Amino acid sequence: MEDQSLKPIRCKAAVCRAAREPLTIEEIVVDPPKAYEIRIKIICTSLCHTDLTFWHVKEDSATPPSFPRILGHEAYGVVESVGKDVEGFAAGDAVVPTFLGQCDSCSSCASDWTNQCTAVPFVMGPGMRRDGTTRFRDGQGAPLHDTLAVSSFSQYTVVDVNQVVKVDPAVPPKLACLLGCGGGTGVGAAWRLAKVEPGSSVAVFGLGSVGLAVVQGAKMCGASKIIGVDLNPNKEEVGKAFGVTDFVNPSQLGDRSVSEVINAMTDGGADYSFECIGVSSVMTEAGRGKTIILGLEKDGNPLCLPSLEFLFGKCVMGSLFGGIKPKTDIPILAKKCMNKELKLEKLVTHEVELQEINTAFDMLLQGKSLRCIIWMDK
Fold it and tell me: Which spans are transmembrane here (predicted)?
């Protein structure tokens, strides 16, 4: 039986009614949490390139368009109420919702080689992951689709208990928010997935917010040479503020390729390379050691590499959430941020209110912002 004392909540949300159309601020209805679910009051959220992917989605996309929907998946909030069978959470807890779950009981969550829970698996499409239904309705009672079972562009949302991480309330909301996707993905890729070693060389292709978080993770792991690769000359100064030691602009190399330049800088090739752009041709430029793919190929092109490169030890790894286990690793990363071992707060370049969310989209599209924090009630 569901807790009948829990009632639907009316609140404001940014609703995406069609691909590439401006979001509209509407009053919506958020249903009570069902079993194993938590209703969260979102304090702040931020805009990620993945949200742009869902906003720009085409009919022939691998993730078919589902409109109207509520976007957003990188956020911080407090528990408003919990559904039946939820343990370890109570109203008022400070939490970070995540698109990837962790149950701590299945064989995958217990293993060291994967962070993908098999008890309540990750799904790209809309719908709560246990029953496939939505917890959102618009003012006329019509259903609204969710995004990655998080939908943080709403003042309230409902998330599966597997996808909620409790954090120390002393962690600043903006900082905790970043750990829910971009910050956690970038740092985790260097720390948990690649396991960057002290004194090693690292190449980071693309110095957006995820790439800069990779730089921070590599610096935290003790890498001695961190090469930032970006077409934007302004990213040289930005990158060095995060820990980049050397900068390569592919448009300024003349007849030399990026790989040639990096090979010369690293005595044969970087030990670790991170592709944070989403372009298959860039993925093939990566170094001799481990190559971590963080960017989803923009045009769906395959990644093709000569088999001889694998024979000589090249390793290509995919990355979902940087290999981190949310409930285990986000509190650790939060502590590292609080003691200044990580300085992810520098990723926040802009802050707006919910009513200005389309401004955040514009700034990201124009390359004017890294992470824009969207405050829900200010």
Answer: none
